[in-house]
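How it folds
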Amino acid sequence: MNRATAFLALLIAAASPLVSRGATVASTAIPDGTYTFKVERIVDAKHVVVLMDNGNETTLPAGRPNIDFSKIQPNDQIKVSLVGGSVMVYLDITQH
């Protein structure tokens, strides 16, 4: 392998975490379960954009009429229970 190819391979390997970071994932692709996410922004009372542990973002919709995301703030940590990609219940676990 020549130097240019080795340098290119190193550059691609170093940049790959940056490329994968910030990718958007459909909430329906996340298996049902309980997760902890960091709040990126609140779209409206029924939708919140969160950052997952793997660096990907997703927009979570409220799965019940009583879910109200307007009570949380960006950078809060929330624990959510997802069913079919929708939030059935959440808890703000941030120490304010």
